[in-house]
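Translate structure to sequence.
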């Protein structure tokens, strides 16, 4: 058998020919690699730039107010789209509220918004993106919608030369539209909350009672303007707009005369126990009287805090005291003449009296009746003057002329007195009620006649002092004791001495005079020396 031998030399692996790559081929390879690297680096830079721009848009929407953010966003958006003309329009209640534009005339933009066939109005009404040709260019409007209700709250307007956006540009536009819609809604909610907060503050500030609101956590304290006025803190920085509610609350405890009682009351409130009754407090050493009550503030059965209301009852208490005093004095003053009338009437009814005594009794009854009528009239006059709802009708009045017209009546009132009227040169025109002025001068002159029983001179002198009219009414009568001068214009006050006790009167005449003078914006005072006479001084503002 013939054996075939294999030639293993043919099984050697393939080997490259020894030598170097040609220089031209190596250069071509290097150039291709470098171009690819440069292209990749350029793409990377573009991606980094776009990422930076998108981050800047996010930062602007998150940190800037809406108007400033739109300026920033529009600039970056036009860079992303590689166009130069565009605008962002914002709407509130379907009306254009604000817009920013680059490369587009503002009036042109406003006219487009008003044109119902424009790309802007179509996008707004249809709530979808709209593109229309404009000459050799195109214009596109992309609606910005509220995420909660789909209402159009803005529009992105772009003017471009290319017929359509690429996918990346479409993504940028839609993403920006969504983010801008979220931002606008967030800002709208914030402004609504601020508006409601301000409205709540204004409502609380409009309340005349002092209000202190404390949240259940104790972290938030609010004091309304009435409380700020009632308890001013030691340090106030109103220029920075701080309400200093905590300082007011602290000041409240410092100035209340019963701090422990108030502290216990507020402690009950914070523990959820709202007392139904009010508590009576005083502050500033009894100069301020307060009535306090509290209300729990709960929303959807969740307790948020409590409101402490402090009502200034100082004037009410003073009025109650004055009314009680007035009733007591009136009762006493009425009882005196009534007792005389009843007593003498019973004598006449039950006993036989001689004509002479009967006449004396009847004269006493008549005089007491006259006194009673005068007292009732004066009380009604006082009551009418204190009632602020009855305004005095004023008109131009010449006081000098009025006084000379009244002089004959004063002369007839007493033959034992010499009444003189003297006025310095000048104008004596004031704005006043003629009837009230007659009542004022009649009361004062009849008072001068009454309290100078021995007669004498009564001098009426008028002078003009810049913008003030001054009238002095002097007598030579009994005078007023020095200790009685501070109270002479008080209701029912009469100087108590042996001479004046014999002279009748209601004790309301001078009180009525003061009331009339004050109602006319003037002042009244008296100078007197006991045993020598008195001078009453009236000052009233002259007409300009």
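Result:
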């Amino acid at each position: 058998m013939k054996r075939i031998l294999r030639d293993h030399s043919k099984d050697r692996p393939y080997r490259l020919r020894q030598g170097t790559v040609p220089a031209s081929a190596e250069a071509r390879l290097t150039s291709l690699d470098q171009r690819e690297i440069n292209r990749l680096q350029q793409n990377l830079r573009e991606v980094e730039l776009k990422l930076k721009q998108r981050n800047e848009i996010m930062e602007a929407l998150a940190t800037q107010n809406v108007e400033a953010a739109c300026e920033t966003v529009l600039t970056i958006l036009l860079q992303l789209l590689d166009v130069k003309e565009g605008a962002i329009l914002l709407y509130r209640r379907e009306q254009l509220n604000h817009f920013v534009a680059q490369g587009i005339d503002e009036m042109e933009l406003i006219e487009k918004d008003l044109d119902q066939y424009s790309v802007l109005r179509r996008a707004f009404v249809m709530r979808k993106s709209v593109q229309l040709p404009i000459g050799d260019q195109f214009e596109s409007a992309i609606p910005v919608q509220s995420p909660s209700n789909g209402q159009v709250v803005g529009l992105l307007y772009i003017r471009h030369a290319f017929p359509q956006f690429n996918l990346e540009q479409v993504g940028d536009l839609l993403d920006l539209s969504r983010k801008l819609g979220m931002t606008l809604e967030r800002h709208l909610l914030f402004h609504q909350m601020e508006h409601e907060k301000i409205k709540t503050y204004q409502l609380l500030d409009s309340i005349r009672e002092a209000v202190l609101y404390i949240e259940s956590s104790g972290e938030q304290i609010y004091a309304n303007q009435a409380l700020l006025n009632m308890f001013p803190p030691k340090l106030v920085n109103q220029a920075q707009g701080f309400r200093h509610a905590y300082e007011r609350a602290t000041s409240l405890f410092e100035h209340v005369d019963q701090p422990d009682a108030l502290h216990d009351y507020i402690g009950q409130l914070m523990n959820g126990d709202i007392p139904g009754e009010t508590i009576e407090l005083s502050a500033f050493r009894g100069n301020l009287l307060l009535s306090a009550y509290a209300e729990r503030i709960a929303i959807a059965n969740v307790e948020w805090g409590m409101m402490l209301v402090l009502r200034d009852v100082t004037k009410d208490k003073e009025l109650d005291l004055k009314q009680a005093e007035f009733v007591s004095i009136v009762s006493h003053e009425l009882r005196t003449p009534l007792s005389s009338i009843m007593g003498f009437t019973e004598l006449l009814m039950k006993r036989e009296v001689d004509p002479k005594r009967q006449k004396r009794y009847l004269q006493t009854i008549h005089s007491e009746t006259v006194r009673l009528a005068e007292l009732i009239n004066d009380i009604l006059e006082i009551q009418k003057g204190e009632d602020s709802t009855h305004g005095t009708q004023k008109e131009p009045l010449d006081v000098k002329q009025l006084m000379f017209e009244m002089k004959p009546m004063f002369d007839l009132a007493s033959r034992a007195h010499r009444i003189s009227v003297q006025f310095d040169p000048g104008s004596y025109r004031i704005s006043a009620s003629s009837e009230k002025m007659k009542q004022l001068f009649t009361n004062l002159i009849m008072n001068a006649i009454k309290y100078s029983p021995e007669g004498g001179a009564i001098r009426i002198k008028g002078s003009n002092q810049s913008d003030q009219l001054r009238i002095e009414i002097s007598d030579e009568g009994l005078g007023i004791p020095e200790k009685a001068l501070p109270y002479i214009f008080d209701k029912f006050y009469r100087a108590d001495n042996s001479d004046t006790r014999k002279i009748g009167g209601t004790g309301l005449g001078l009180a009525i005079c003061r009331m009339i003078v004050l109602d006319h914006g003037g002042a009244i005072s008296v100078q007197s020396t006991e045993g020598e006479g008195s001078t009453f001084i009236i000052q009233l503002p002259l007409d300009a």
